[in-house]
Design a protein that fits this description.
Blueprint (H helix, E strand, L loop, with lengths): L1 H7 L12 H15 L15 H11 L11 E6 L2 H22 L2 H7 L10 H4 L2 E8 L1 E4 L2 E4 L3 H18 L3 E2 L8 H7 L5 E10 L15 H4 L4
Antiparallel strand pairs: 1-2, 2-6, 3-4, 5-6
Length: about 220
């Protein structure tokens, strides 16, 4: 009991937000309608994006929950053209192998609707690339410290980031060249960090198009018990 009281001293009051039920329903519907317009894009403009905006997006991503509040993520922001070029060249090398033998016929068939190939010019066109690294463990004063639910935590942060990007009026693509070890090598990340996701971010190009896709209906994704 005494230990519980001691822990309580490290807590602060939670300030609840009370909109009222009617406003909650309205806000939830409006937010869904707005988020339903989010699309993954492969056609970017080279128009500059303020760095402060990118910083705000990453701060938003960092509000995601994480196992034991370890926050096992690093967001690497790349605007240097030479580094973006190196990333594109390495990614295209891996993607060429994927499209010419690594991917199964079923996988390639599933990708046909996106009309993609191994060319990834958007990695140089987009004003920023954000590479999310997952920290498999932390290092404090030379000692390894365990992180918990790393994939789940970093996945949640990535979702927060994509939501923030759309909310800011920008577009993004979740790019996962496989394998992705070249990202750690190019960016010289420490051994405890592994690449999780590569996200080009910017404005859409004037001629941007997206596949005509439909999301699953509510009754296909939700089961009420």
């Amino acid at each position: 009991m005494e230990k519980q009281k001691q822990n309580k001293k490290n807590f602060i009051p939670y300030e609840a937000i009370d909109f009222g039920e009617a406003e909650m329903l309205e806000r939830s519907e409006q937010f869904f309608q707005y988020m339903d317009r989010r699309r993954s894009l492969r056609f970017f403009s080279s128009k500059e994006v303020p760095l402060q905006l990118i910083e705000n997006l990453i701060k938003t991503a960092s509000t995601a929950p994480s196992g034991a509040h370890k926050q096992p993520w690093t967001f690497c922001v790349i605007q240097d053209k030479s580094i973006k070029k190196a990333i594109r060249e390495a990614a295209e090398k891996e993607e060429y192998e994927n499209y010419h033998g690594r991917m199964s016929d079923e996988w390639l068939e599933d990708l046909e609707k996106f009309d993609t190939d191994w060319h990834k010019e958007f990695l140089e066109v987009a004003p920023y690339l954000i590479v999310i690294f997952k920290k498999t463990y932390d290092v404090e004063e030379g000692d390894k410290k365990k992180n918990y639910y790393v994939n789940e935590s970093v996945g949640l942060a990535a979702g927060f980031l994509l939501t923030a990007i759309h909310n800011a009026g920008l577009v993004a693509l979740t790019h996962t060249p496989s394998p992705m070890n070249f990202l750690a090598e190019i960016l010289k990340r420490p051994q405890n960090e592994k690449p999780f996701l590569l996200i080009p971010i910017g404005y859409p190009s004037d001629n941007a198009v997206v596949p005509d896709l439909k999301r699953k209906a509510l009754d296909e994704i939700m089961k009420l018990y």
